[in-house]
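Need tokens for this chain, all 482 residues.
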Amino acid sequence: MLDKLDNLPQDIPKDTRNDTSDAIIPGAIPKKNRKLGRTLFTLFTLIVIGGIGIGVTHNITKPKQEKPSRGARLRNVPVLVAQVTTKNIPVQLQAIGNVQAYNTVSVTPQAGGQITGIFFKKGQDVKKGQLLFTLDPRTQEAAIDQVKGTIQKDLAQIQQARATYQKDLTQVQQAKANLAKDQAQSAFAQAQANRYNSLLKEGAVTQADTQQYQANAKAASAGLNADKQAIANAQSQLGVDQAAIQNAQSVLTSDQAALKAATVQATYTKIYSPIDGRVGDILVTQGNVVTANNNTTPLVKINQIHPIQVSFSIPEKDLSLIQKYANGSKLPVNVTFPNSKRTVSGLLNFVNNTVDSTTGTIQLIGTFDNAEENLFPGQYVNATLTLTTKQNATVVPSQAVQIGPNGRFVFVVDTDTNKVKNVPVTTGDSYNGFDEITQGVKVGDTVVTDGQSNLVDGSKVQIKTDLKGEQKQQGDILNESF
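Here are the structure tokens for all 482 residues:
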């Protein structure tokens, strides 16, 4: 443009050359046209900026639509698969169980006194009959000595009563002897009187002699009555003596029972374990004075843990299943522990006779030998009661079953086309990482077990044995694509 200005005719007045407002310059845009161009350019710029603003606003307000990843459009989706197979699936009931000691004994003293010895340690296993505590025995020993003295006194009284009885028995025998003698004399006197009565009638004797013999006979008869009364009195005294002996023997029996009780009480000064088990904390120390039969403060508690039991509850609706499958036999019960693979096996040995109306459950108890002491009283465990086993049930790995808006489904792979189909399924019991399929697939079908998040019905897949490595490669492709 400057070159063109330099080529202008030199005869044009200077003022005229500088005034280019109306000058016509070859190749230049007229002033009016330049204004029009600037106006059009401004309008075009505003239209472009407005369009960009509308686009940005549209992108902000319009929800972003889900689209398959670009990598998924470029290649087949890598997945892991498994075959639908058959397995024996146990029918089980599961619940939270609480471990309980088979027996629990609170050891309390049956005699009072001062503790003189403790022969075990806290937490120690003890055997039935093992010595645990000793108490001061002097009080019980004194009681035994006192009762023994009373018994000796009772024995002396019995001996005295028996001596009196023997004396009175001798008197009875003497009275009987007198009676026999007097009976003979009376008979002789009566015979003499009778003879003199006969002689008196014949006039052989006098009336005075006859009366004398009759008087002798009457006197002898009166003596017999006295002898009989003496015998009766002596026999009556024997009855008194026998009663005295019985009373003395009764007192002796009572005192002998007291001696036995005192002797038993003395054995309570040594306290032995009543069961095999494990002791807890010792609640007394040597030198403490304890009272008899104080159930509020036991000396120690012993839990029997061999065997041990687990209590758990199931809904009352499942009670009929237990009644059906138990059939007089004991069902197996297994327990597992949180965050552990350990399993302990036992048997169901108790079904409560009442349903808890507040919870709608019924209590069950399983017994375990606990030889390895995996179970400890107070623990909470997962209890599994096995009712029966379904033979040859159709199963798939649990991770193959997905949950969608219409329920459970699996992706079944068509091995001819490597495409997947969304197939609804009905599941039954689950066991050890497998789900029973009662409807939807058949044995031999191939189902996707991993990689379902990138699949839709009809997706084409690539079956891999190392899905993690393939996913990493797929991620690299996605990054490169964008």
